[in-house]
Amino acid sequence: MQCYRSETWGYYMASRSSLENPLERVARLASESAVVIFSVSSCCMCHAVKRLFCGMGVNPTIYELDHDPRGMEIERALTRLLGASSAVPVVFIGGKLVGAMDRVMASHINGTLVPLLKEAGAMWL
Fold this sequence. Notes:
Blueprint: E1 3-6, E2 10-13, H1 16-19, H2 22-31, E3 35-39, H3 44-55, E4 61-64, H4 71-82, E5 90-93, E6 96-99, H5 101-110, H6 113-120
Parallel strand pairs: 3-4
Antiparallel strand pairs: 1-2, 3-5, 5-6
Helix pairs in contact: 2-4
């Protein structure tokens, strides 16, 4: 195993997840929990989407990309996946891409978000 130097994290050990393709990593992480949010800790839209889910009683898995040594690579992969200029927040429910804040809010407003959450096992009521 090799050690790598990161500007913000010092040294870290290369693991399987640090050697895999960023899109493969996104897919793997998104499939490991009922609700996954890719976020940046200083982003107000990311904060709003996290509050939305927590307010609904959902406990999402949150990946703060600014705390990940390969966060910029993941953010670029999410940008390509969405085809948008802004990559965060990005929400996956049941391993499926829901999208960015606009898609999440549209699903919430039109009533399709709660059924998605129930189907993924993130809500029981």
